[in-house]
Design brief:
Arginase, Chain A, eight-stranded parallel sheet, about 400 residues
Length: about 400
């Protein structure tokens, strides 16, 4: 394999853990600490071709490629004086409390994702990973859902500005990727696909199948609203029934993915029932699609995930290893030194292996579907809304 095929650009610096809404907030940056430590102790970050790069802080020109200038100024003001929270911009809510330095660290996360995106698009690296990124709820003019700046959208926009004509975005977070969808809703160059818990039962209340893109971009937004309780078999069935056929028809030049792992059965904020094994299977499927359709060009980010020690570190270490071309066997033991570190920080008994013991098997849509089944109804609703817009038969 050539050098390009063995390289992964990892946007990371410990300063990114300053993205911290406080000790009682679900999005505790310790999950990043645990992830990077686990990946390092398992040898992932020292694999040949893995390059860790400390991100630069994005300037206003880059931030305003996806955000309104007045919003960026509001974030800067709240960052300098957290008492100056502005609820009209979503700043100072329970979801997005203001903290000192908020602008700088948020802009640095965005800068890291954009740098990884540019490296992938230019071909100086095959894969890019930004585990601190994936802040997909931030809107052009407002913070939302733990997200200040939308680094994913900025990464996509940077590739468009560099000449990309077809960028596909696949979001597997349990919450709808509403910010990314909103920013590109009328842009036919970007295909956004989000698989998430039904918005009738979970924040942000959007992401229904009928949301298919606006104007000349009809068919560019795809939403799979999954019933609460959906586990590995159902989730992977839905993914394979929707994502590969659309991507193969649309033929993206580069694949961007958001890997929020709050779809796990142990996550405290949502109601799906995936395992680490199901999430790993999704990562492998996305990587394979990037290889098949995009000459390997793939940018992956983190996202949600609030089972801080049990789930996030293992799922994202699997992601980093897959991006590096060296997937970790699910049965691999977790290093005892890492487990000791987790226990010392009082996060309970850490998992023993890189698996939850699930097989991540699923039945293929092409083998038939049950119109009375809630999951199949959800899949068919998406296929019916979007597939004809791409010349595909939703019932095939």
């Amino acid at each position: 394999m050539d050098e390009r095929g063995t390289t992964v650009y990892v946007a990371w610096d410990e300063s990114l853990m300053r993205y911290d809404f406080g000790p009682n907030h679900p999005m505790n940056p310790v999950r990043l600490d645990f992830t990077v430590r686990l990946a390092r102790e398992m040898g992932v970050l020292s694999l040949p071709g893995v390059r860790m790069v400390s991100p630069d802080t994005a300037d206003d020109e880059l931030l305003t490629s996806v955000h309104n200038p007045d919003y960026v100024q509001a974030v800067r003001d709240a960052s300098a004086d957290p008492a100056r929270m502005d609820l009209s911009y979503g700043l100072g809510t329970d979801d997005v409390p203001c903290f000192s330095g908020m602008h700088d660290v948020s802009a640095r996360i965005l800068g890291g994702t954009v740098a990884a995106a540019r490296s992938v698009w230019k071909g100086t690296t095959l894969h890019g990973v930004s585990v601190a990124g994936g802040l997909h709820h931030a809107m052009p003019g407002a913070a939302s859902g733990f997200c200040v700046y939308n680094d994913v959208a900025a990464g996509i926009q940077a590739m468009l500005d560099a000449g990309a004509e077809r960028v596909a975005y696949v979001d597997v977070d349990v919450h709808h990727g509403d910010g990314v969808q909103a920013i590109f809703y009328d842009d036919p160059r970007v295909l956004t696909i989000s698989l998430h818990e039904n918005p009738q039962t979970l924040f942000p209340g959007t992401g229904f199948p009928h949301e298919v893109g606006g104007g000349d971009a009809e068919g560019s937004a795809v939403n799979v609203a999954l019933p609460p309780g959906t586990g590995d078999a159902g989730w992977l069935r839905a993914f394979h029934a929707v994502v590969p056929p659309l991507l193969r028809t649309w033929k993206p030049q580069v694949l961007v993915s958001q890997h929020g792992c709050d779809s796990h059965i142990d996550d405290p904020l949502a109601h799906l029932a995936l395992t680490v094994d199901g999430q790993r299977a999704a990562e492998l499927a996305i990587q394979a699609l990037a290889d098949e359709l995009c000459d390997g060009r793939w940018l992956a980010t983190g996202g949600g995930g609030y089972a801080l020690a049990d789930v996030v570190p293992r799922t994202w270490t699997h992601l980093l290893a897959i991006a590096a071309g060296r997937p970790i066997s699910p049965e691999t033991p977790v290093p005892e030194s890492w487990r000791t570190y987790v226990g010392r920080l009082d996060y309970g008994l850490a998992p023993l292996r890189m698996t939850d013991g699930a097989d991540a098997a699923f039945s293929d849509w092409e083998d038939g579907y049950d119109p009375a089944d809630w999951l199949d109804q959800a899949i068919l609703a998406t296929r019916t809304a979007v597939f004809p817009l791409h010349g595909l038969d939703p019932h095939a």
